[in-house]
Amino acid sequence: MDYMDEKVKNDLSSRILMALVLMTFCIILLRESAGFMDPKAKYFSRHELGVTHVLVTGGAGYIGSHAALRLLKDGHRVTIVDNLSRGNMGAIKILQDLFPELGRLQFIHADLGNAKAVNRIFRENAFNAVMHFAAVAYVGESTVEPLRYYHNITSNTLLILEAMARHNVNTLIYSSTCATYGEPEKMPITEETPQFPINPYGKAKKMAEDIIIDFSKTTSMTVMILRYFNVIGSDPEGRLGEAPRAELHEHGWISGACFDAGRGIIPGLKIRGTDYKTPDGTCIRDYIDVSDLVDAHVKALAHAQLGKLGIYNVGTGQGKSVKEFVEACKRAIGKDINVEYLSRRPGDYAEVYSYPSKIRRELNWTAQHTNLQISLQIAWRWQKSHVNGYGPPTIVS
Ligand SMILES: *[C@@H]1O[C@H](CO)[C@@H](O)[C@H](O)[C@H]1NC(C)=O
Ligand SMILES: *[C@@H]1O[C@H](CO)[C@@H](O)[C@H](O)[C@H]1NC(C)=O
Ligand SMILES: *[C@@H]1O[C@H](CO)[C@@H](O)[C@H](O)[C@H]1NC(C)=O
């Protein structure tokens, strides 16, 4: 009798049920829509317990890419921001191939001088810490184009600091340099050695440091400033290397000259100044292997405590003369190199080396790769197999 009625009732309740299911589904869909459209985004836009998400600026560059590799290897989540004006897309590709899993590595092609872009990056991502590597870094170039240096070092650092403050990112590891000390009267250089930089590069870095330090005093931000000495070497497993733009070779560092000589691009090495008051008459520098340098960053990150300001020299503490460097270079590349002895270059000073006891005491860091020849050999292996560096820069978006 009521059979029909019963059926209508059943129909109605199943329809209501269906509607409820659909509604729930829609709500879930809406809530996940950001992640739904780009499955990667949700990993980077949210904090995750036990995962440290590090923004690596300049992560396509020489030191930045090595740091990103180490952070990824240690299980951190990494966002690289680089505008590829000095960095290499090839280095990013290698890192992406090594860590293809969702939520491990993200590359954002953006210009750190663009405040809008920087703010957007901080708004859309949940960073725990920033390692700020991005910079132009050639003393010679800085004397010719000082504005480029003040703009891209000092002003860009200010922008990043402002974005960090606005978005509550509280840990900054800053790449600085022994060039901020200028020509100290006393060696070795400690963190208390007065800073009187003598070129726009050193001055721009010193200004950026001052801005960071002053700001850190007014906030609970953790700041670790690492002042690098002369960085050499590359990834011992040969995945990454140093590949400066061709037009920058003339400004390059001494190891670049060694490899160029090894490849026959330049006729030989020039030693400028053999009458310094040093044991063999040539300048003395402190060469730090990039693996050790990156390890110092990881230790600085691990020791970051809220409100702490740490300033550390990152060097070996062992000065090596230019002559020793040239000998190590010859052995590393397995060739004799023509060496030309010239008079002193204006602005060079006899000795620069660090006293790395503060960083050992406070961060338990010491340089492990202090054999010049081995560091150069590793780098030379990469150079030999990458005659064109990472190849022509291509932009993938
Ligand atoms: C990188 O940034 C600079 C400004 O700092 C800009 O002039 C340049 O065009 C940018 N390069 C690329 C490849 O976007
Ligand atoms: C640095 O700043 C200058 C402006 O002074 C700009 O033209 C240049 O493209 C910037 N980028 C680099 C990598 O030098
Ligand atoms: C310091 O580092 C060494 C070697 O990396 C390690 O064996 C040691 O346990 C560390 N000490 C502390 C106090 O963390």
From TrEMBL:
Tell me which Gene Ontology terms the entry assigns under biological process: galactose metabolic process; lignan biosynthetic process
Q: What is its EC number?
A: 5.1.3.-
Which terms are listed as keywords in the entry?
Carbohydrate metabolism, Isomerase, Membrane, NAD, Transmembrane, Transmembrane helix
Cofactor dependence is on: NAD(+)
Q: Where are the transmembrane segments?
A: 12-30
Q: Which GO molecular function entries does the Swiss-Prot or TrEMBL record give?
A: oxidoreductase activity, acting on NAD(P)H, oxygen as acceptor; UDP-glucose 4-epimerase activity
The answer on whether this UniProt entry bears the keyword Isomerase reads: yes
Entry's SUPFAM superfamilies? Answer: NAD(P)-binding Rossmann-fold domains
Q: Which residues form the NAD-dependent epimerase/dehydratase domain?
A: 54-315
In what pathway does it function?
Answer: Carbohydrate metabolism; galactose metabolism
Q: What class of enzyme is it?
A: isomerase
Would the keyword NAD be found if you checked this record's keyword annotation?
yes
Q: Which PANTHER family match?
A: UDP-ARABINOSE 4-EPIMERASE 3-RELATED, UDP-GLUCOSE 4-EPIMERASE
In which family does this protein belong, per the annotation? Belongs to the NAD(P)-dependent epimerase/dehydratase family.
Q: What is the protein name stated in its UniProt record?
A: UDP-glucose 4-epimerase
